C-alpha cells in the first residue's frame, strides 16, 4: 500500500495486513485490540464481513459499511480490491467475473462515501478495474 498509494501510516499499514484476520482465522476483535489497539481493531472489524448473515444481506451490509467507513478503511479496502484484481489473472472465467463483480460493488460503495484522502487511490484502482474488465470481455 505504501508503494501503490503512498500511504506510510503504520496504523493503516497494520490494518491492511490484518484486514482478513477476523474473517479467516480464530483471531477476534479483542485479540487484535489487545495487540494493536482499539483504533486498528476497529478498522479491521470494518473490513470484516458478517458471516452470520445470508450472502446477499451480508454483501449489502458490507457495502454500506464501506460507504460510511473512515478514509483509512476505504484505503485498505482499495488495496485489497487491487490485490484481488491482480490475482484474478490466475482464475477461470467464472472466477474472473466474480472478482470483477465484487470489485465493482465495492468501488461503487466507496465512491458513494469517498473521503478526499482516498480519492486518488479510488481513481487508480477504478482505472485498473476498467482495464481488467475490458480485457475479460469476449472478443468478437
Description:
The protein is mainly α and 140 residues long. It has a single domain (2-136), classed as Hypothetical protein af1432, CATH 1.10.3210.10. The protein is built from nine helices and no strands. α2 (10-18) crosses α5 (38-46) and α4 (29-36) runs antiparallel to α5. The protein is globular and about 50 Å long. The N and C termini lie far apart (37 Å).
What is the general shape? globular
CATH H-level superfamily title: Hypothetical protein af1432
Strand content: under 5%
CATH architecture: Orthogonal Bundle
What's the number of helices? Answer: 9
Mean pLDDT: 94
How many E strands? 0
Structure classification: mainly alpha
CATH class: Mainly Alpha
Outline the low-pLDDT stretches. Answer: none
- The total number of structural domains is 1
**Portion of residues in helices?**
over 70%
Helix/strand layout:
Blueprint: H1 2-5, H2 10-18, H3 21-24, H4 29-36, H5 38-46, H6 55-68, H7 71-87, H8 93-112, H9 116-136
Helix pairs in contact: 2-5, 2-7, 4-5, 6-8, 7-8, 7-9, 8-9
Concise overview:
By secondary structure, this protein is mostly helical.
Features:
140 residues, 9 helices, mainly alpha, Hypothetical protein af1432
Amino acid at each position: 500500500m505504501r508503494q501503490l498509494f503512498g500511504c506510510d501510516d503504520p496504523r493503516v499499514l497494520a490494518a491492511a495486513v490484518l484486514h482478513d484476520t477476523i474473517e479467516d482465522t480464530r483471531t477476534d476483535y479483542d485479540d487484535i485490540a489487545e495487540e494493536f489497539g482499539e483504533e486498528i481493531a476497529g478498522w479491521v472489524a470494518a473490513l470484516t464481513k458478517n458471516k452470520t448473515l445470508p450472502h446477499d444481506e451480508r454483501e449489502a451490509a458490507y457495502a454500506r459499511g464501506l460507504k460510511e467507513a473512515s478514509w483509512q478503511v476505504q484505503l485498505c479496502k482499495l488495496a485489497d480490491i487491487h490485490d484481488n484484481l491482480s490475482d484474478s489473472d490466475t482464475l477461470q472465467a467464472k472466477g474472473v467475473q466474480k472478482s470483477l463483480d465484487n470489485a465493482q460493488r465495492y468501488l461503487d460503495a466507496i465512491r458513494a462515501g469517498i473521503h478526499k484522502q482516498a480519492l486518488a487511490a479510488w481513481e487508480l484502482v477504478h482505472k485498473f478495474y476498467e482495464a481488467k474488465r475490458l480485457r475479460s470481455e469476449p472478443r468478437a
